[in-house]
Amino acid sequence: MASTLTVKDMNQEIVRDCMKGLGPVSKSVLSRKTGLSFPTVSKTVDLLCEIGEVEEAGTEKSGGGRCAALYRLNPVFSLYLLLTVENDTIHWSLKDLEGNSLKEETSEENFPILTAMEAKIESIRTQFSCLKGIVIGAAGMVSGGKVVLTAGGSELTGVNLQEHFSRKFGIPVRAVNDMNAVAAGRWSLAGRSDGCCVCIYLGKNGMGAGIVINGKVWQGASDFAGELGFLPDMPGKLRPADKNFAPSRMLEIYCKIIQIYASVLNPERVVLYRNPFLDGALEELYRECEKVIPEHSMPLLEISDSYETDYEQGLMVIANMLKERDI
């Protein structure tokens, strides 16, 4: 039989998860939505109010009787650190539960990148005692929190960032591939539940893709999906620092990749995050792709300026799923 403490913790988690994204809500509504009895919800909400995780947020409009109190999650009770790393560049943003940025910074590091990340996290944790979780987006193949593969041989290759930082700081940590986070964010902001979307980005580490199918990020059997540098005739051509990188051939390369995804996944939309090679190129991309892809199977192509927004949103989606037990 579960202990009383375990049952209490479970009830708190049920109520907490239900309140996320709801805004001000009454105890009776929480009871209906969670399936917990009203006395259980009432006691649980009161306990969460005592520790500051939940706060009162006014009352319901009067219907002639006594107005029920409304409650919401305290947005600054739990703060999350979203940290991205690409080569020697670190960007971090401290977010509250509502996704508001309390502080953020971008820096180019001269120190070993892992040491620099540790120092930044330690500094932030010292300043903000309410830090409850960390989500790391890394440019490269990431599997189970471990950086398996990076272009250019980053020192993070082989490091399990999840294990390393959760052990060091004692809070939940998730480490994910950058494009998987971008795709998750794009889908979240679109507010859709079904369909297929492919997001493609060219950065310092080369070109990569993130895939969402029916609301779920598709990472493949070993988290290898979207590693475009391993496509036939692509090795050494998708990273600006590579000697075989040819700016004059980038539109041709984009067309080939779109054609591959169109024939394998048949997505409704392919999002291409803007770079100088794509400026004014949308019509030409359509024209060249339609030479190969049947008209009724041609995906909608979109050149987007929202890479950073989508990336941050994806990391925040993951942050909202972190649990204390994930340490």
**What's the helix count?**
9
CATH architecture term of the largest domain = 2-Layer Sandwich
Average residue-wise pLDDT: 91
Structural class assignment: alpha/beta
Shape: globular
Give the strand content: 25-35%
Alpha-carbon distance between the two ends: 24 Å
- Kindly report the spatial arrangement of strands forming the biggest sheet: 5-4-3-6-9
Profile the largest sheet: 5 strands, mixed
- Please provide the ordered H/E string of secondary-structure elements: HHHEEEEEHEEEHEHEEEHEHEH
Poorly predicted ranges: none
The radius of gyration is 23 Å
DSSP, total strands: 14
CATH superfamily of the largest domain: ATPase, nucleotide binding domain
The overall number of domains is: 3
InterPro entries: ATPase_NBD, ROK, WH-like_DNA-bd_sf, WH_DNA-bd_sf
Protein name: ROK family protein
Family: Belongs to the ROK (NagC/XylR) family.
Function: Transcriptional repressor of xylose-utilizing enzymes.
Walk me through what this model shows.
The chain has 327 residues and is of the alpha/beta class. The chain has three domains: 4-73, Orthogonal Bundle (Arc Repressor Mutant, subunit A), CATH 1.10.10; 79-180 and 310-326, ATPase, nucleotide binding domain (Nucleotidyltransferase, domain 5), CATH 3.30.420.40; 193-304, ATPase, nucleotide binding domain (Nucleotidyltransferase, domain 5, 2-Layer Sandwich), CATH 3.30.420.40. Helix content is 34%, strand content 25%. It is built from nine helices and 14 strands. β7 and β8 form a beta hairpin. The mean pLDDT is 91.
